[in-house]
Design a protein that fits this description.
Largest sheet: none
Number of helices: 5
Radius of gyration: 20 Å
Structural class: mainly alpha
Number of domains: 2
Helix content: 40-55%
Strand content: under 5%
Low-confidence stretches: none
Shape: elongated
Order of helices and strands: HHHHH
């Protein structure tokens, strides 16, 4: 599949592609292993995780849109729990939102049937 994608992308004149992922070793091998079709196909940029300070207004806004109160400290706890890994921050925040009525509370979430 990778050979077919590279072949198609090589024919593109006015296009750029970005491949994203959180598994550095997988992405590195994709572009740095001589046996792989994408070997030296483009530049590699390693981005730092989004900071908690940047997550706070984003998450707070999403909760406010659904009329659910959440504190900055609770948002910090979400971010710290998953070490600011973007997909995990979003997944955990979503799960907290689903298990909250009007406000986020500490403790075990109620069982929903």
């Amino acid at each position: 599949m990778q050979k077919r994608i590279r072949g198609a992308w090589q024919l593109q004149q006015q296009a750029s592609y970005c491949l994203f992922g959180s598994k550095k070793h997988m992405l590195s091998s994709l572009f740095q292993d001589k046996r792989m079709p994408f070997y030296q196909f483009g530049d590699i940029l390693f981005l730092q995780p989004i900071s908690t300070a940047n997550w706070i207004p984003f998450i707070r806004n999403k909760f406010e849109e659904r009329n659910i109160a959440i504190t900055d400290e609770q948002i910090r706890k979400i971010c710290e729990t998953v070490q600011n890994q973007s997909s995990y921050v979003q997944q955990l925040a979503w799960n907290v939102m689903l298990n909250s009525d009007n406000a986020v509370t500490e403790g075990k979430p109620p069982l929903r049937h």
